[in-house]
């Protein structure tokens, strides 16, 4: 059941964004990101970063929106080292 926790939080963040709950959706996406980093869930982590970038763009926050660009390379390196 724990492996679905990040997916659920990401979906709740998407729902919050669709219903104009700006603070809650960002908190949920950040919590999902913490879970994915701690657990090593690369795909869910990418989804969390994607959602945070979309939220930042909606707020016109270019600094936060561009942050995920460096993250995928780091995750690829981490994933390939563990194989």
Report on the architecture of this protein.
By secondary structure, this protein is mostly helical. Helix content is 80%, strand content 0%. It is built from 5 helices and no strands. Helix 1 (5-18) runs antiparallel to helix 2 (22-39), helix 1 packs parallel to helix 3 (42-58) and helix 2 (22-39) runs antiparallel to helix 3. The longest helix is centred in the middle third of the chain and has 18 residues, at 22-39. The chain is globular. The mean pLDDT is 76.
What's a quick, concise take on this entry?
The protein is mainly α. The chain has 5 helices and no strands. The two termini are 24 Å apart.
Features:
about 80 residues; mainly alpha; 5 helices; about 0% strand; globular
Secondary structure elements and pairings:
Elements: H1 5-18, H2 22-39, H3 42-58, H4 62-66, H5 71-82
Helix pairs in contact: 1-2, 1-3, 2-3
